[in-house]
From TrEMBL:
This is C4-dicarboxylate ABC transporter. It is a multi-pass membrane protein. Belongs to the tellurite-resistance/dicarboxylate transporter (TDT) family. It is found in: Cell membrane. GO terms for cellular component: plasma membrane. InterPro entries: SLAC1/Mae1/Ssu1/TehA, Sulfite_efflux_TDT, Voltage-dep_anion_channel_sf.
Length: 355
């Protein structure tokens, strides 16, 4: 009975655990390339395989849940937050795919094309889920407090295909132009969905919140601007007609990164007040991926400054990225502890209610 109750609560939002772990692996991979560190490289591999194991376990539980409780299928696909978190599944698969070929590049043609088509499949899955979320947002009778920044997950997933796709392009061969086109599609859709959904979510929050309540930390869309910074810098480094001039890319990137820095500092101040006094749960995992992309965006921006001999901007962005990385590791460890406490307490309560 206890296992069935645990199984029932294992919705798509639990995939944030695997995504957060994989995000640490991606960041460590970037840091290993920069510092030429075998220790960071090997640690990144550890987090990659840990993320894979967590993903497989969660996917098995999530799938079993639909067979044990068939009614949750309709409930989940009518819940905006559950629909949004469903995009974490193909996003996690894409990160596992790209991270694996980054750590273990293969010259076997069949494996290279398998990674290439896996990327395309994941992109299409994310795109279809974003279409469905948009459809439900327009047609569903949205309840009070249901529209949140969780609905930004699909555009974040779409925009993640940009910097992840850069590793896939060499695998595409004559079809590399398709990846270029998909990258720009993801960037364009994500950019305007950030604005559209973000404004709607903020308006909904301001309208629904009680005057005696303070704003929850998750109302801050940390990571949104960072992912755009990564996208713009990545697009400036691509060859062909899709390339953005460096001056334009740098202007836009610094502007967006500055706003993200503001978001990051405010979120950290709010989290000090909120998170450590909150009841144990899995919401803390929502910080991990945004922290990773903020750190990566800061480091990518610092590398551009360094290559152009801009010393002070380089130092600011580089050390900001390092600080974000340290906070990410701390947040990941804290999230693991809190999640274990949450599961333990939930099982104890389930046993008491069953007896």
């Amino acid at each position: 009975m206890t296992f069935k109750k645990t199984l029932y609560i294992t919705g798509s939002e639990w995939f944030a655990i695997a995504l957060g772990t994989l995000a640490v692996s991606v960041l460590l991979n970037r840091m290993a390339d920069f510092f030429h560190s075998n220790a960071l490289y090997n640690t990144g591999i550890f987090f990659l395989f840990l993320g894979m194991v967590l993903f497989l376990i969660l996917f098995a539980l999530w799938t079993a849940r639909t067979f044990v409780f068939p009614n949750v299928i309709l409930e989940d696909w009518n819940n905006l937050n559950r629909i949004s978190f469903s995009t974490v599944v193909p996003l996690s698969m894409m990160i596992m795919n790209v991270s694996y070929i980054s750590y273990y590049p293969s010259k076997i043609i069949s494996l290279r094309y398998l990674s290439y088509y896996n990327y395309i499949f994941d992109f299409i899955a994310i795109l279809l889920l974003s279409f469905y979320l948009g459809y439900k947002m327009y047609t569903k009778n949205i309840e009070k407090g249901e529209l949140t920044y969780a609905e930004l997950i699909p555009p974040v997933a779409l925009s993640s295909t940009v910097f992840l796709g850069k590793r896939i392009i060499p695998l595409g061969g004559i079809n590399a132009d398709l990846v270029y086109f998909m990258i720009l599609m993801g960037f364009g859709i994500a950019l305007f969905l950030f604005l559209f959904i973000g404004i709607m979510a903020f308006t909904s929050h301001i309208r629904d919140i009680k005057s005696s309540e303070s704003s929850p930390v998750l109302v801050l869309p940390v990571g949104v601007s960072s992912i755009l910074v990564i996208n713009i810098i990545t697009l400036s480094q691509l060859p062909g007609i899709f390339k953005i001039p460096l001056t334009v890319a740098l202007f836009a990137s610094v502007s967006l990164w500055s706003f993200e820095l503001w978001n990051f500092i405010v979120a950290m101040l709010v989290s000090i007040k909120k998170v450590f006094h909150a009841k144990p749960g899995i919401s803390i995992w929502a910080y991990t991926f945004p922290l990773a992309v903020f750190s990566i965006s800061s480091l990518k921006l610092s590398f551009v400054f360094k290559s152009n001999n801009y010393i002070y901007p380089y130092n600011i962005t580089f050390y900001t990225g390092i600080i974000a990385m340290v906070i990410l590791i701390i947040a990941w460890i804290y999230a693991v502890v809190i999640t274990l406490i949450f599961i333990k307490r939930f099982n104890i309560q389930s046993q008491k209610s069953s007896s």
